Amino acid sequence: MAKKRNKKNNKKQNKKKFNFKRFFAFVLFVYIIFSLTNYILNMPIKNIYVINNNMLSDQDIIEIAKIQYYPSSVTNTSGSIERRLRNDQYIKDAKVSKRWLFEVEIDVLENRPLVSYDDNVYLLDKTTVNDNHNVPTLINVTPNHIFEVFLNKMALVDQDILIRISEIQYKPNEVDDSLFFLTMTDGNYVYLTLNNYDIINEYINIIKNFENERGILYLDSGEYFEVLSN
Fold it and tell me: Which of 36, 42, 100, 121 is deepest in the core (most CB within 10 A)?
């Protein structure tokens, strides 16, 4: 009988008491981790910076990126924002970086309109749109092989010069089959060849030398300026 009682006593001694303090500490720890994780996941974007945009406003780009309501910064990764921006026809490329996780900087390369031709507006990536844009118009038929090179050259024209060009006429001669005649918004005219087309970016500096005279600037052969009589 004594042996049986000892076995019962041993069973009672082996039973562990429920440690409420430890359980409470574990639950509290899990709750804190869950709350902290949830807080970070839902932490909104605080500041948005947009750089290198001209045609599109800051607000346009923020709306295209779908972050106009300052959503969660964690769930809106840099990659996901970039993909949304690149899907827009007027954005050729975009780079998104984050400062301190909750500040977003968007650096865009706009797919800017270059020229209107044949009822279409050609963009930087050579796609076309039917929207109205303040771009020069190529007014006459241009051979395809010349037009391809012409578009590449137009992509090199600075935006502040581009808006000063009103019309462009393809005007080849016996010497040069890549000659173009530009009508400027200030009343001047410019001859350019595709071989030195980028010199048009110096237009403002060049035209200053002629003391507000109006005429034809021959940039296809030096910088000769022919004054037109009033």
Answer: 121
> What does the domain layout of the chain look like in residue ranges?
47-110, 113-227
- What CATH number is given for 47-110 in this structure? 3.10.20.310
- CA distance linking residue 192 with residue 181, whole number of Å: 6
Question: Distance between terminal CA atoms of the chain?
Answer: 134
Q: Does domain 113-227 bear CATH number 2.30.130.10?
A: no
pTM to 2 decimal places = 0.80
User: Long-range contacts: 46-50, Cβ < 8 Å, 24+?
Assistant: 46/70, 46/73, 46/102, 46/103, 47/102, 47/103, 47/104, 48/103, 48/104, 48/105, 48/106, 49/103, 49/104, 49/105, 49/106, 50/105, 50/106, 50/108
- Dihedral of CA atoms 207, 220, 122, 201 in degrees, nearest 10, equals -40
Q: Convert the pLDDT of each residue in 145-154 to its tens digit.
A: 999 999 999 9
Q: Would you tell me how many other CB atoms lie within 10 Å of the CB of residue 117?
A: 22
Residues in a beta bridge with 48: 104
Write b or e for each residue in 161-173: b if 16 or more Cβ atoms lie within 10 A of its Cβ, otherwise e.
ebebbebbebeee
